[in-house]
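Example record

The entry below shows one chain as it appears in the dataset: sequence first, then C-alpha cells.
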Amino acid sequence: MAAITAGLVKDLRERTGAGMMDCKKALTACDGDMDKAIDFLREKGLAAAAKKASRIAAEGVVGSYVSEDAKVGAILEINCETDFVANTDSFKALVNDVAAFVAKSNPADVETLLKAEIVAGKTVEALVTEAIAKIGEKISVRRFARYEGENVCVYIHGGGKIGVLVNMKGGSAEVGKDIAMQVAAANPGYLKRDEVPAAELEHEKAILAEQARNEGKPEKIIEKMVMGRIQKFYKEVCLVDQEFVKDPDQTIGKLLEANKAEVLAFTRFQMGEGLEKRNDDFAAEVMAQVKG
C-alpha cells in the first residue's frame, strides 16, 4: 500500500474539489491509487465540487448566531450561485449552523474555520462539500465576524441580504437591536470621528473646497465653509453622529447616552458586495452558437 502523504491528499483535492478528509479516506480505501480514488469520490458524489470550482457564487445568505446570554455572537456569509438555492431552508440552516460554530469555536480566519471539526469526524469544509454534491451549485464560505462581550446584538435584514453584529457595553437588548438596525439602514463607515483616516478626511475637504470654488465663493470664506460642510460628512459616515432612523430629532450618540450604553464595535455584511455577478446574456449566447 502506498503511503498516504499530505502531498497526495492535496493533489487529489485539487483534482476533484473534494474535502481533505474525504480525499484521505478515498486514498486509504484505494491503497493510494490516485485514479481509483478519483473514481471512488465520483461514485460517492463528492467530486462534483470540482466541476463547479470556476463558477460564480455571488448569491447567498448572511446568517447569524447569538448566545442566550448575549455574551457572544457571530455573523457569517456563505455564497451560492442562485437566489433560488439561497432561499431554501436547507441552505439557510447550513449558514446558521456554521455561524453558531464560529461563535462557539472562535476560529482565526476562514481557512482555519474550514479545517475545523464541526461534528464528530467531519470538518466544515466536508460539510460544505456535501452540500455542493447535494445541491449541485458552487458554495463558498466567504467571511465572518465574531464578538464576545457584555451585550452582543444582531440584526438580519431581507432574509439574509444584510447582517449586522454589534458589540455593546451597557444598554439593553432593545437598544442593541435599534443600533444594529441603524447600521443596516444607514451603513456608517466608522463608529466615531477619530476613526476616520486622515487621508480620507483631507480628500473630502479638498472636494468640498473645490465645490465651493465652483459655486463662485471667495477664497477667504471657503475654509470656513468647508469646516461647516465637513460636519455633514461626519453625520453620514460616523455612527454616533448619525440621526437615529426611528427618531431623526436625536443622534445615535444621544440615544446611547440616554440609555447608558456604548458601542465598542460593529460589523455590517451586505450579501455579495464586491463579488463579480453572473451576467447571463442568453440571446447573445444563442446568436454565437448560430454563427458558429
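Notes for this example: The radius of gyration is 25 Å. Residues 219-237 form the longest helix (19 residues).
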